[in-house]
Amino acid sequence: MTQTTYQPGEIKGLIEIEASKCKGCDACLKFCPTHAIEGASGAVHTIDQEKCLGCGQCLINCPFSAIKETHSALETVINKLADKDTKVVGIIAPAVRVAIGEEFGLGKGELVTGKLYGAMHQAGFKIFDCNFAADLTIMEEGSEFIHRLHANVKNEPNAGALPQFTSCCPGWVRYLETDHPELLPHLSTAKSPQQIAGTVAKTYGAKVYDTKPDKLFTVAVMPCTSKKIEASRPEFNSAWQYHQQQGQDVPSYQDVDAVLTTREMSQLLKHLEIDLANTQPFDGDSLFSQYSGAGTIFGTTGGVMEAAIRTAHKVITDEEIAQLDFTAVRGLEGVKEASVTLFDKALDQEVTIKVAVVHDMGHNIEPIINDIIAGTSPYHFIEVMNCAGGCVNGAGQPIDTSGSGWIGNLG
Amino acid sequence: MMDKKPLFEEDKFFLSRRKFMAIGAAFVATLALPVAWFSNKLARRNDYIKARSAGLYQDDMIAKQRVSHANSAVEKYYAEFGGEPLGHKSHDLLHTHFVDRTKLKS
């Protein structure tokens, strides 16, 4: 019985340093949020897998391309697409649509939603936009926040913990689980959009697609490496559990069967000889491609908070927010804070909500956590994303060589 | 006497002031060029992150609906299947629990 930070069945050792390529230059060290990389300067480095979050920031910033992923579902997905008995559902994360174009010669940051839908449709995917699931996340996470806020204002016993943390980022969740488990009650219990998408696709989606849930194969296309670990968490088979309760009896399956990074999706399209840059735009094939602007900004730092504020305003005051652009939480500052004062109809009083947005987690989160432990945190709601800039700069994205591995993303 | 080596070799080497300045200038220029290149690269090293974020904010601007609760597909999901946010089905399907990983054993 040895100590481990992995549950049975979870992907362990996702990110690995190739000894033959590592020059021991230390560039990766400043990108690792958990100091999981070991080895003297000049000597080959290794990753302590118990500490590793799988965020892969070292991988995209290694000047020698010496760091790789050990798990790829590419071949499985190719086989499933060829299997006539299986309906393959492609779940597209927000940040993918502004980066995958780079792999096909389009400009940096070019928005290619229609072309990506078109290319994946041609490849045989059903289109399930993860932004739709992000909208569901806001409904659940936002309601949960308001529930906790009201219970705290009314001093109810067992009122949920404030500040509430967002729970969309798998690196952040794993960090809290390994390093500060005493703060887990602060995490929103809402699943991440990826997991909501997988669950909805195999429950409600099974009706929409008129297909047996075990004949649906869900492929999440993510800007993130850590999402692969998240999808493998043993508790994430809720669609199977749901159908078991409904009387179906088949072997267990995960809510998300496979995760491809943005890079792997572009490899898949190239393998199938689909040129995304010259693909006809496609609108989608079900209600699952319908999403709001709030859902799409989940992919950048501050986006989840901005989306939550827009909906919380409506729920708390019963009126739509006048100024949709909540610019105080935009931009690349390490910690952004803002406060909103609203008239709460249910409480019949004014409430001031203080929020904070943290990204580039390894460099910015500890002071915030220490304040909460000390009981001096001024905030009610905190968004945390591991990667600098948010998911748009996740380790599954096309690698941009203008980034400077030796100095750090945000200096 | 003529065979005796001079004490200091430097006497044999003469560099005019003009030539010295020219070589010096060339040397400084080769140093300065990469500094400019380097600082330019530094200043632009987050541009790809900003460009991708700008792409998402553009997607937000052109969206027919810009708030989650106005997404009619979300309404349809709750009406036909999910019930309501934080409801029983949401608890089972859309929420989760977390794991204290300091207590796991293999």
From TrEMBL, chain A:
Report keywords, A-Z: Iron, Iron-sulfur, Metal-binding
N-terminal signal peptide: none
Q: What is this protein called?
A: 4Fe-4S dicluster domain-containing protein
Give the source's domain of life in one word. Bacteria
Iron-sulfur is among the record's keywords: yes
Q: What Pfam families does this protein map onto?
A: Fe_hyd_lg_C, Fer4_21
Tell whether NAD is among the UniProt keywords: no
4Fe-4S ferredoxin-type domain spans which residues? 13-42, 43-72
Q: What is the lineage of its organism?
A: Bacteria, Pseudomonadati, Pseudomonadota, Gammaproteobacteria, Alteromonadales
Automatic annotation (TrEMBL), chain B:
What InterPro entries does the entry give?
Fe_hydrogenase_HydB, Fe_hydrogenase_ssu, Fe_hydrogenase_ssu_sf, TAT_signal
Record field: transmembrane? 20-38
Q: Check the record and name the SMART domains matching this protein.
A: Fe_hyd_SSU
Q: Iron hydrogenase small subunit domain spans which residues?
A: 43-102
* Keyword match Nucleus: no
| Any one Pfam family match given in the protein's UniProt record, by short name | Fe_hyd_SSU
What are the top taxonomic ranks of the organism? Answer: Bacteria, Pseudomonadati, Pseudomonadota, Gammaproteobacteria, Alteromonadales
Q: What name does the UniProt record give this protein? A: Iron hydrogenase
User: Which keywords are on file for this protein?
Assistant: Membrane, Transmembrane, Transmembrane helix
Top-rank taxon of the source lineage equals Bacteria
